[in-house]
Amino acid sequence: MTDDLWRSPVASRCGIGRRSRRSFRERHLTAPLTMPAMASQIEIYQDMSALSARMVEAARANDWERLIRLEKSVVALRRSLAEDDDNARLSRREAEIKHALIQRILDDDAEIRRHTEPWMEQVRQFLGGNASRKRVESAYGASS
């Protein structure tokens, strides 16, 4: 399956891609901090929205590894926005588009949480059960 997003101008300027040979630090910590000069806020929000839609698909499919990879890409884009999120430069139309994109991202986040929270609860119960079992075994000795 080909992800067109990985070929988007913003993603490539942020160093986000499947086949990047750069280290994690170079891709996610260094590159995004220098990127905003060429990409507009709207382009970045559009890429974030596209990624969040893919995150919803991954969450629905219980594809946690893909979800984590996509979330890391969103974080890189979010960092690039932190440097250049000046609403004063946006036209009224751009501000409306930005608002709509942010709302879509928030809606996707709610959908992702709807799928991940039950799984996280199972993990918590499993880990909690193991911790309780280990405490009992420690206190009374493990049965052989």
Structure description:
Helix 3 packs antiparallel against helix 4 and helix 3 (41-60) runs parallel beside helix 5 (92-140). The protein is mostly helical and 144 residues long. The relative contact order is 0.12. The longest helix is centred in the C-terminal third of the chain and has 49 residues, at 92-140. Helices cover 73% and strands 0% of the residues. The protein starts with 8 loop residues before the first helix and ends with a helix. The chain has helices spanning 9-13, 24-34, 41-60, 64-83, 92-140. Residues 1-37 have low confidence and may be disordered. The protein has one domain.
Rg, Å, rounded: 20 Å
Structural class: mainly alpha
Order of helices and strands: HHHHH
User: CA-to-CA gap between the ends?
Assistant: 50 Å
Strand content: under 5%
What does the secondary structure layout of this molecule look like, with pairings?
Blueprint (H helix, E strand, L loop, with lengths): L8 H5 L10 H11 L6 H20 L3 H20 L8 H49 L4
Quick overview:
Helices cover 73% and strands 0% of the residues. By secondary structure, it is mainly α. The radius of gyration is 20 Å and the shape is elongated.
Please describe the structure with a list of short key phrases separated by commas or semicolons:
single chain, 144 residues, mainly alpha, 5 helices, 73% helix, elongated, disordered N terminus
